[in-house]
Amino acid sequence: MRTFEKFNTGWVFAEGFDESWTGALQEGAAVTLPHTAVELPFNYFDENSYQKPFTYQKIIANDPAFEGKAVSLVFDAAMADSVVFLNGEKLCAHRDGYTPFTVDLTGRLKDGDNLLTVKIDGSENPEIPPFGFMIDYLTFAGIYRDVWLKVTTPTAIGNVKVETPDPLAPQKCVQADVFLTGPVPEAATLKATLYDADGHSLATTEIAVSGDKASFEIDGLEDIRLWDIHDPALYTLSVTLETKAGSDTVTTRFGFRTVAFATDGFHLNGRPLKLRGLNRHQSYPHLGYAMGKRGQEKDADILKYELACNVVRTSHYPQSKYFLDRCDEIGLLVFEEIPGWQHIGGEGWKRESIANVERMIRRDWNHPSIIIWGVRINESADDHDFYAETNRLAHELDSTRPTGGVRCIEDSEMLEDVYTMNDFVLGSEEMPGSNHLRMHRREQKKVTGLSRDVPYMITEYCGHMYPTKRFDQEQRQAEHVTRHLQMLNAIAGDPTIAGGTGWCMFDYNTHQDFGSGDRICYHGVLDMYREPKFAAYAYASQGEPQDNVVLQPVTFWARGERNIGGVLPLIILTNCDYVEFSFGDMEPRRIDPDRATYPHLPHPPVVIDLRSVTPEEFGEWGRVWKDGKITGYVDGKAEKTMNLTADPVPTTLEIAPDDTALKAGEKDCVRVILRALDQTGNILPFFDDPASLSLEGPGRIVGPDLVSFKGGTAGLYIEAGDQPGTLTLAVRCRPFANQTATFTLS
Fold first, then answer.
1. Considering 460, 474, 531, 719, which one is annotated as catalytic?
2. pTM of the complete model beyond 0.85
């Protein structure tokens, strides 16, 4: 039987590399994977600090159980240029920081201990995508995803591809291709069993195997649930190869569903669905890319449940399998693309990029959440031969999904199935030399240069056109909200646009050439710790109130924060039917959503201005500032109330971990948000005091133990150690009483 177990512990890490080191274990730090070579500060750092070689080493004992078996290591990813040595012998090189690679150890392990050495070079090698010119994000360095020890029979299952032709038919069918590794067996059989989500066996088939690939079909399936965003029904195919040397079993999850992009939009299972989502990088403060399963899954949950998105784009590279698995489980659609940013390199670079297409698709072709392959370098120029090949290869590997190619230029050659465009026209009227009024989106035919409509999607908007911090002045944040609302409304109102993914989910670290000068691009609707800005609620409010009632006024509720004073117009982001609003002792006033301004949004915001209140009612400049109260109603029932105090004072220090139960020995890492709250439970937007952190028990605080609040919040990560026990996080911050939070490690 197959063994596939984590190989993450017991590594020794050192800065630098010399080939002579591959013959003997070097001195270094004991580390557990996933690991980032350099833990960077939150901002203001030198990104060159990780752009150099590093060495990882580990002793692997030759186990008697390896006898007669195929033994290999599977690296889920390492950034960026990897070379693997065993006992001083070079075994493997991999020049891609985002896809898996396998190192074959079969027959190479000597008796006793063996030394495994992995050279990781974080340099931005111009021969490796996305490097070669400039990129607006950091790639960090290290073995930042899991490594696995795989032990199988000599002939084993290498990969399984599952397709579900005509899943809308009453009786459904599963077709599978099974790819074998190792010597072609003289005689072998393949047995496949289909299971539902509860583990019930639905069907079984068995075939003889005569080569390195076997195909089979299971048909006549009834009572099968379709995978959908509201009912992400998953099925499992278990495939067992039987040879004289034993058996090898692989299981894979998949879903029954159809996807289609057409001139009238996107269709899931034959029904129209407007795509609404955001772009996501895979980076985190301090840890870079080295976030494990919990953090990856949390990002998917935030997109789906907190931001009410139905799609995410993995900008600009394949992302963690844990993230994609979670998207499968919760019904979050995915636009996945190959590594790259604007630059196309030479012929060797292009060959590597074409190989990226194959590695991405072969890794991820069974994920029902993935609806389109991005096979063009983000925002690059046209290159006919190069992109003709990436499209050809994608279609050859997977005929069930369309291809897209993200560009920012007009009149670009359309070789893909879907014309995917980064449309930053909103805000371009502010650029020097512009001579046009404010526009929310370009007309499709003007973008494509074609005389006909084609399948079309907007893949980025806003972002760098209006970077906004959580602690920016209220008026800027209100404009940030307005721009996202305007784009959501414009996309929703055009049936020829399949949907859009705004730029972007959260702020991210970047090179000195971009961002705000502190190595951060403040382009997100969340900050780097995934704490929402007001614009996040522009997305959240488009979800249905039965899932999550949203009621968020875009204000700090202060008389003199905005230019000229006051808080009007006051945008209230909500999915309620209407709100009641009162100022001081004013009688509550019912105000309906602004459908005139935002006619296409599922849930337009409520906008309070001089159409709904008078200056006398609201209190002009120089008059006493009063409390406010907003109540949201759904089906005539008050569902949520928000009180706004005229005289906020620091009252509560909230410690909000995503979870308090962690796993020991797995480098389990959990986010903790600190919030400074007023007497009504609202965040104090200008609270920026420092907080002193300490942790007792088998774990550590990722990052500094002295943090500063920004916009009333601060973030940190707690990483579990190797031993079970209890962690106690203590937080000291003026003017609050000392607070603690307890975590259990099992």
1. 460
2. yes
